Amino acid sequence: MTTLMVCSFEDPGGAEAALPVLRHLIEEGRLAIDDASIAVWPPRARKPSTQSLGSLTGPGELWGGSWGVLLGLIFLAPLAGPVFGAAAGACAPAVRR
Predict the structure, then answer these.
(1) Going by C-beta distance under 8 Å and a sequence separation of 6 or more, which residues neighbour residue 8?
(2) Domain range annotation of the chain
(3) How far is it, in rounded angstroms, from Cα 74 to Cα 78?
(4) HSE-CB of 97 using CA atoms within 13 angstroms
(5) Contact indicator for 3, 40 with CB cutoff of 8 Å
(6) CA-CA distance, 48 to 72, in Å (whole number)?
(7) CA-CA distance, 75 to 47, in Å (whole number)?
(8) Residues 50, 33: Cα–Cα separation, whole Å
(9) What is the pTM of this model?
(10) Rounded distance, CA 75 to CA 66, Å?
């Protein structure tokens, strides 16, 4: 069974503070994490910063691209969609009837 879990923290360093607890649970066999990522979006920043953590216990580079695509779709698609639509409309020939 696959589960996607998202945790939100009030403090920007909250996710990094939770990492030792997660690593301890993984070592005990009580938790399994295939891949993890931290996204931090400061209040006045234009875009979030992301950090791929991998599997927290070993290499997880395979899924780094997947996280990048997912976060890109979530944060960039609302901005890029109208821009590309307007460009396509401007470049398309006008159809007269």
Answers:
(1) none
(2) 14-91
(3) 8
(4) 0
(5) no
(6) 10
(7) 8
(8) 18
(9) 0.49
(10) 14
